[in-house]
Specification:
single chain; 179 residues; alpha+beta; three-stranded antiparallel sheet; two-stranded antiparallel sheet
Length: 179
């Protein structure tokens, strides 16, 4: 065998084959194998997409839920702070509702609908007495637009915050009215 010949087995016996012949055989084998896999990349991509799209939809739903929960909590906290600094229960309800609506408006399109309840039953009847204001904000987020099978059309998230009534502000306001 010369330096340009490579041994190969044919029927159990070693036979010298030219190096160029081996390259040609390898090239034919690679071409023949690649030809049988036509469309496999398309099939693999399709399979990956059918798995990845629902997973991405579920991740988006969790993101929307987190954003909606945060929006509701921020609105409830702002409303409770605004209501607790008021002089009387009626003003507290109005200020609390206005603060919640303003906070929800800044969140833009997180909540498709919302419900705001300002509870002033713990508001003190006399200036200088301790009391609390409770605000509940319900935020309904739309999930249907994600088009993920199994997800509900919408989800309502609720946040409740309490705030102590500032009894000294209320006293100063009532003393100012008495003068």
């Amino acid at each position: 065998m010369s330096a340009h010949q490579i041994p190969r087995l044919v029927g159990g016996a070693a036979v010298a084959a030219p190096a160029n012949g081996l390259r040609a055989a390898l090239a034919r084998a690679v071409c023949a194998r690649g030809g049988g896999e036509r469309g496999s990349y398309t099939l693999e991509a399709l399979l990956c997409l059918t798995v990845l799209v629902p997973i991405l939809g579920i991740l988006a739903a969790f993101g929307l839920a987190g954003l909606g929960d945060s929006t509701a909590a921020n609105a409830a906290a702002a409303a409770a702070r605004a209501a607790s600094a008021s002089d009387d229960p009626d003003t507290a309800r109005a200020r609390g509702r206005q603060a919640a609506l303003q906070s929800l408006g800044q969140a833009q399109r997180t909540c498709a609908s919302s419900d705001i309840v300002v509870d002033t039953s713990g508001f003190p009847s006399q200036p200088g007495q301790p009391g609390t204001v409770t605000v509940r904000v319900d935020c309904t987020i739309p999930l249907a637009e994600l088009a993920v099978p199994g997800l509900p059309g919408s989800k309502t998230l609720t946040a409740t915050r309490h705030s102590a009534v500032d009894r000294y502000v209320a006293r100063a306001a009532s003393e100012g009215k008495a003068q």
